[in-house]
Amino acid sequence: MNNRFTFLPPVYCLILFFLPALMNAASLEFRSSEAQTSLLELYTSEGCSSCPPAETWLSKLKDSPRLWKDFVPVAFHVDYWNYLGWRDPWSSAAFSDRQRGYSQFWRNDSIYTPGFVLNGKEWRNWSHAKEPDASKGNAGILTLVSADSNHWHITYALANHTDKQFEVYAALLANNLASDVKAGENRGRRLVHDFVVLTLRSKPLESNAAGLNCDFAFGADYPNFKPTSIAAWVTPLGSLEPLQAVGGSF
């Protein structure tokens, strides 16, 4: 018998030893339960003097043990207050249009900030609540998987088969974004924001042998801000009403 022994330098031995741990560390997975996880949206602006109290309330959710499990918070900065002389650096016309879409659906005549939306419905009682109430009912399991926090695979598993079509939204979020406001209603104030939506994508879910799924790739359209978490939610195709949500920090 010819026994051969191949010598590996110590550095390669260390790489082989830690490779499984490194591979697991590089993989991100966030999965909802079957019970509905609430989507909590805040429409806000640095140009609005009434918004800081709402943002302070939202920031307290960072310490909740129910975060990501029972509710997923996102803050959309709108652009319709920018005319006051201060441009909110995180504002987007697309976020204002999203709020207008809700207003049309509710048949309201106007939009306003701060404006909370809970599971697709206007929520005015936020200041009297510590946290959003837990939702009820089986909403299916929504799962996010990524190896680099920029490319994500999304799957949606329903308990019962359906021929309905679905759409998924995914947003990269950032916390602890500070701004020294120099004009407008909040002039002279230093504002700190959490759960800020940096970028938002939407895509129909495809139905194939693997179930309902799709892939997202986020570009570098937020060069000055580092995302710290992701939120995703699924809706009926063409609707804003969320059926299930999922999210997490990375």
Number of helices: 3
The level 1 CATH classification is Mainly Beta
Record field, number of beta strands: 15
CATH H-level superfamily: Immunoglobulins
Taken together, the total number of domains comes to 1
Shape: globular
Radius of gyration: 21 Å
Task: Please identify the structural class as seen in this structure.
Answer: alpha+beta
Please list the strands of the largest sheet in the order they lie side by side. 1-6-7-13-12
Low-pLDDT sequence parts:
1-8, 10-25
CATH fold annotation: Immunoglobulin-like
Q: Return the CATH architecture.
A: Sandwich
How much helix is in the residues?
10-25%
Q: What's the short story on this structure?
A:
The protein has 250 residues and is α+β, with helices and mostly antiparallel strands. It has three helices and 15 strands. The chain is globular and about 55 Å long.
Account of the protein in words:
The protein is an alpha+beta fold and 250 residues long. It has one domain: Immunoglobulin-like, CATH 2.60.40. Helix content is 16%, strand content 35%. The protein is built from three helices and 15 strands. The chain has a five-stranded antiparallel β-sheet. Strands 3-2-4-5 form a four-stranded mixed β-sheet, with helices on both faces. Strand 12 and strand 13 form a beta hairpin. The longest helix has 17 residues. It starts with 9 loop residues before the first helix and ends with a strand. The N terminus is likely disordered.
